[in-house]
Amino acid sequence: MISVEQLRIFEEQGAVTIDTPLTTAEIATAAAAVDALLPFQGVESGQAPRFRYGATCNYYEPALLDLIQHPFFEAIAQRVLRADAIRFFQTAILASYPQPESEFSYDQHTDIQYSLADWAATPRRVVCSFFLWLTDVNQRRAPMMYRPGSHRLVAAARSADPLLKDAMPAVQGIKMANLPPPYAAPQPVLARAGQVTVLTTSMVHGGSTNIDAAPRKVLVMTYTAAGVAIGLPENQATTKRTYDMKLGALLRPERAHLVAED
Question: Fold for domain 17-36+50-250?
Answer without folding.
Answer: Jelly Rolls (2.60.120)
